[in-house]
Structures are given as structure tokens and as C-alpha cells.
Amino acid sequence: MKFEEIMEHLRNGNEIKNNNWNGLKTGKEMYLHLQQPDKNSMNTEPYIVFHSDKKTFPWTPSCLDLMSEEWELRNPDLEEIKC
């Protein structure tokens, strides 16, 4: 999928990944999800979070990420439930 296609999946609560990420090729668990701020959050707007080997941090796409067509759902079986 293209980046603009996966944005709707993120908004619906799905987790996504990109098969071009080097870490996936070495067996690391790497994916994105959309974080909704809560009462304890310093952020006031939703933001994308990157997960990798028990590390979590805010993520901003690079130009290569935006142009990639290798995006896919992390758990495709959940697509029908959340979309």
C-alpha cells in the first residue's frame, strides 16, 4: 500500500509496518500506530508512534517513507474488525 492508503488504517486503530525497514529483515518487531493523547499526555493532538524491540518513540516519516509502496497492516486479520 502507499502511505496515503495506510493513514486511514492508522486512524482506524490498525498497526502498520513497512517491508523495506532493515530491522524487519533481521527479525525485529517494528511497527507504527496512531497515539491518541489522554489526560496524562503532553501532546494535544494525535501522533504516530514507532515501536521497535520494546522501544517506543514519536515518529515522523522521511521522504522515502512517504514515497514507499511497501506498507502493510501488521495484523491483516484485524482489518475487518477495525476498518
Radius of gyration: 13 Å
Count of the domains: 1
Largest sheet: 3 strands, antiparallel
User: Numbering strands along the chain, what is their spatial order in the largest sheet?
Assistant: 2-3-4
Q: Overall pLDDT, averaged? A: 87
H/E order of the elements?
Answer: HEHEEEHEH
Strand content: 25-35%
Unreliably modeled segments = none
Helical residue percent?
A: 25-40%
- Secondary-structure content class: alpha+beta
Work out the number of β strands.
Answer: 5
Our count of helices gives 4
Structural write-up:
- It is a single chain.
- The protein is α+β, with helices and mostly antiparallel strands and 83 residues long.
- The chain has one domain (3-82).
- Helix content is 27%, strand content 27%.
- The chain is built from four helices and five strands.
- The strands form two sheets. A three-stranded antiparallel sheet has the order 2-3-4, with no helix packed on it.
- The protein is globular and about 35 Å long.
- It starts with a helix and ends with a helix.
- The model has no long low-confidence stretch (mean pLDDT 87).
Question: What labels would you give this structure?
Answer:
single chain, 27% helix, 3-stranded antiparallel sheet, alpha+beta, 4 helices, globular, two-stranded antiparallel ribbon, 83 residues
